[in-house]
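Schema walk-through. Below, the input block comes first and the output block second. Nothing else is stored per chain. Lengths vary across the set, and this one has 392 residues.
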Amino acid sequence: MAVKDQAAALKDELIELRRDFHMHPELGFEEYRTADKVEQYLKGIGLTPERVAKTGVIATLEGARPGPTLLLRADMDALPIQEENDVPYKSQNDGCMHACGHDAHTAMLLIAAKILTGLQEQIAGKIKFLFQPNEEVAGAEILIEQGALKDPEPDAAMAIHIWTPVKSGLIGVQAGAVMATMDVFKITVKGKGGHTGYPESAVDPIVAAADIIQTTQRIQTREISLMKPTVIMFGKIQGGSKNNIIPDDVVLEGTMRYLYEGGPESEENPPKRLRHIAEGVCATHGCTCEVEIERENTAVINNPAMVQLARETAKEILGDENRVVAHASMAGEDFAAYASRVPAVFAFLGTGNPAKETDYPHHNPRFNIDEDVMPLGVEFFVEGALKYFSNQ
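--- output ---
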């Protein structure tokens, strides 16, 4: 039976798995129920799963002949969001929901593993199935530190992400940076508290903080080329206790995202620029500041050869090259940890369909997916793996 026919025959099981995961979401490194279900499913299709980093699950399929190892990865964690969808499979865990498609990724890779175990004779090498926890907080590096890429070590990697900004039934894939480097920052502006009736006796950190927010915008519009996408966003401002009190300090928190590495050796180096502006603005206002910046993810860089394989796969399963589109995002993804070590490709499976109300953005309490596209994700994993081994 052709892979497309197998994926179609397993569609009900695929949707049932996804909805079960959706109803029982779990946060990063707390995916105990999810991991148990994944393990039991893998055992049921003849694989021998192992745990890594508490809730990560790995299983390796040995092909009929020796050859390279391909890593297929799906993430499992949910988000601390209260779901607002009125659906039969709504989250049963208050304050937690699958608002990014990881429930679908896990279900798609399980069904792909089921199909691939039946195609063992066509595989000249090994397939390593990795069900990863805590993607939302960069769990990949922790898994790697604990041996997720050993015994066997992969020679290449693939992943596909459900994506509402892309129209249902399209697959987005392109070479180069496709998911952004992400740094998280915290700036503590320190002044001198006082009474709002005589502000001249105080050193106001609120004004300095406001100036930092405004002046920072010049980094992404005046200091770094617009051809190198850079987004610096403030997501939290905290300061003060009463409307007539000038506080001692104000805390600003946010993220920096860019479609390039942006590290200390780079010409752009947004963290260095942010620190320079914060310190300079504070000095102008008579304040001081502490700047903390932590890199959460580097950019996901797609390997050109793996992209070619993915595009050929997508064209074959979609039957129309016009449904294979270029796409990149300023969101972060810890698949970068794998892509920085082996040739890899990260693709986007479009699920945006206004008629089905599946066009809400990721991390939104109304996020949902067009389940009819999920068999395409299964086909992408299976056909992509088969093509990878046939090309060796």
